[in-house]
Amino acid sequence: MNVLKPYQKNTIITLLERACSQHEICRITGIDRKTIRRYELLHKEAIPDLISNSPRVATGPGQGEIQIPPPRPPGGDASKPLESKIPEHARSACESHREWIEAQVRLKRNAMAIYQDLVDHHGFTAKYNSVKRFVRGLRRTDPEQFDRLDFLPGEEAQVDYGEGAPTLDPKTGKYRRPRLFVMTLRYSRRSFRKVVWKSSKEVWCRLHEEAFRYFGGCPEYVVLDNLKEGVIRPDIYEPELNRLYEAMLLHYGVIADPARIRDPNRKGTVESAIQHTQGTALKGKRFESIDEQNQHLMHWEEKWAAQRIHGRAKRQVEAMFQEEKPHLLGLPISPFRYFEEGTRTVNDDTTIQVGQSSYAARPAPIGSLVLVRIYDLEIEIRDLKTQAVLRTHPRAYRKGNLLLPDHERPFNPSRQTQYLMNKAEKIGPNTLQLCQQLFESQGRPAQKSMWGIMGIAGKYPASIVEQACSRALELNIRTSKQVRQIADQLFENVVARLNQAEVIQPADRNNHLTQQHPLIRPTEEYGDLFNQSARENSGQTNPKENNTNDDVDAGNGEVPETTQTVGSEGDTGNPGDSIPSIQSVIHGNAVTGPAGRIGPQTLQADRASIRTVGTG
Q: Which end of the chain, N or C, is more open, meaning fewer C-beta atoms within 10 Å of its C-beta?
């Protein structure tokens, strides 16, 4: 028993006499409850010698030390309740209300509500802490149920990092633990293990590629943790993957399925594989190099881990892997191209700077942000939002290189000479020769004269400009204004010759008239058109003739005296056929051709004959 100071003993006895609980005394004094319980027993038994902690002195020869009898053995009465074995001082004040409190706990009521009802309805006099401790002992938590995840062959692989065995670091000369990469096929439990000193986005992706080649194929899904090498922004619904990792998986046709945060049970297979590796293959070992540890892991996987009988599946891991291997996706022919990614701002010269070289970024507007992917031999410029490829360039390794086409550059005197020479060459050799002589004699200021000559080509045909430049070379002319005057004079001469060739005398014009042409119909056809129209209108009455009572007798074919027949030369119409009115011919509903068309040619061919017809 702990020996307390006198004031501590007196404090405990005083609080016990005031009916304070052991927990309350422990809270007030800071003395352990076991010590308080011992002094409470001594106080109830009224043994002052033990309480004062003074040894008992013998006062006579017959008086010896008081012998403490041994404890009485427990009784054998089975009917005696178990609670009677608990000392009275150790029993809870809530024990007499056990059944009622248990019923309230089953109703999911908290300790404070139970304490309040005990005080109000059951005359409970103890403190709330007694009820709280008693309720805590009655509550039982059922173990959480887990489901056994079953997957098809080749459907899923789980991947994660762990810690390897201590290995000698060549840089520091000290032993430290590298990172242990493990990928486990969910169906067969076959694993790929490798340790690396440092992880990154590229290292993470290359480890996946090595695992795919080791298995001889790819699974359909990869379940991973939310580490930065794989997931940029974790999210329950739409996690954002690292672009390099996403592009690598897309190249192999694999889909990433990140697990939820703090949910290791979703990838429990690889978690068990890491623990199995650390506890069996690497426990208590040290390696002098990273390659030595990788060789040990490969040997252990082939000889022991793959040959074991899995505890839950009750089958050999290697046998299950041979069943799963045909279901894995095939590996692509070409390897994955790794890249670095970043954002750049388009400069005012429509270029972006990557490294120490500049690349054209159009159609991206000036001042906008673009996404840049840097490959070993290529530069890709992409839209920052849609990821669409805007431009590709071969990667320049020479410092200060500028990859910007000439047609995308604004005016710059240092580059205009070659541009003007190319335009002059398209016009003709004389124009090119004249521009070369101008540049040789004047240098860069000759660009102004060359621009003037190019302006002439925009006004006159190339042949006129070529003749003007040829004349200028003969006359040793070196100004664009004189070349323009020569071109104007040549053009005026050409126009004058054309006008002279087009002048035709009236006598000569009559010689060009002809009566025979594929576009001119024969006169017989026009006669047939008039005869057909006359027969169709022979039964109709002219309104003006009704007013003069000069009706046409459609039965005998006689016509009034005011109606004349067409008797022009070449006309094959019948003399007795009536002539339609001029109004019907003009409106086009009287004369039709053989094909049922309106016959305007009839009106033009026999205009003189129709003018002689009177309508009364």
A: N
Burial class (CB within 10 angstroms; exposed 0-12, middle 13-18, buried 19+) of 38: middle
Question: Do 194 and 204 touch, CB atoms closer than 8 A?
Answer: no
Q: Are 582 and 574 within 8 A, CB to CB?
A: no
Phi first, then psi: what are they for 362, rounded to 5°? -60, 145
- Which strand ranges, in their side-by-side order, compose the sheet holding 402-403? 351-354, 357-360, 402-403
Helix and strand totals (H; E) in the chain:
23, 16
In terms of Cα–Cα distance, which of 323, 199, 183 is closest to 267?
A: 183
The tokens describing 324, both together, are: 């799963």
Which one of 107-111, 137-141, 527-531 scores highest in mean pLDDT?
107-111
User: Residue ranges of the alpha helices (H) in 195-261?
Assistant: 201-215, 243-252
Cis peptide before 413 (omega within 30 of 0): no
The answer to whether the beta carbons of residues 460 and 479 sit under 8 Å apart is: no
Site of tokens 């609080």 = 15
Those residues whose C-beta lies under 8 Å from the C-beta of residue 324, and which sit 6 or more positions away, are 153, 154, 185, 187, 188, 190
Which helix (DSSP H) or strand (DSSP E) does residue 184 occupy? strand 179-185
With CA atoms as reference, report the closest residue to 272 among 302, 299, 312, 215. Answer: 312
- pLDDT digits 0-9 by tens, 289-315: 999 999 999 999 999 999 999 988 999
Q: Do 208 and 243 form a contact (C-beta atoms < 8 A)?
A: no
> Model-level pTM?
0.54
The CA-CA-CA angle for residues 47, 50, 55, to 5°, reads 125
Portion of the chain with pLDDT greater than 70, in percent: 77
Give burial (CB, 10 Å; 0-12/13-18/19+) of 78.
Answer: exposed
Nearest to 417 by CA among 389, 384, 440, 394: 440
Amino acid at 183: M
d(CA 241, CA 229): 9
CB 256 within 8 A of CB 244: no
Distances (CA, A) of 347 to 105, 353, 354, 610: 72, 8, 12, 81
Task: Label residue 233 left, alpha or beta by phi (over 0 means left) and psi (-120 to 50 means alpha).
Answer: beta
The closest of 332, 310, 328 to 319, measured between CA atoms, is: 310
Coil vs helix vs strand at 47: coil
Question: What separation, in Å, do the N-terminal and C-terminal C-alpha atoms of the chain show?
Answer: 156
Lookup result for tokens 């040959």: 307
3-class state of residue 246 by DSSP: helix
Give SS3 for 155: coil
**Residue 83 near residue 95, CB atoms below 8 Å:** yes
- Give the three-class secondary structure for 41: helix
Q: Could you count the other beta carbons within 10 Å of the beta carbon of residue 194?
A: 21
Q: d(Cα 465, Cα 470) in Å, to the nearest integer?
A: 8
Sheet holding 191-196, edge to edge: 191-196, 179-185, 156-163, 221-223, 255-256
Query: What are the tokens at 176?
Result: 């430290």
How far out from the chain centre does Cα 562 lie?
A: 92
State the Cα–Cα distance between residues 113 and 135, nearest whole angstrom. Answer: 11
Give the H or E element holding residue 497: helix 480-502
Task: Please check the confidence at residue 367 and state whether its pLDDT lies above 90.
Answer: yes
3-state secondary structure of 264: helix
Q: What is the pLDDT of residues 410-452, one digit of tens each?
A: 766 666 788 888 889 999 999 999 998 888 888 888 888 888 9
Which residues neighbour 110 within 8 Å (Cβ) at sequence distance 6 or greater? 135
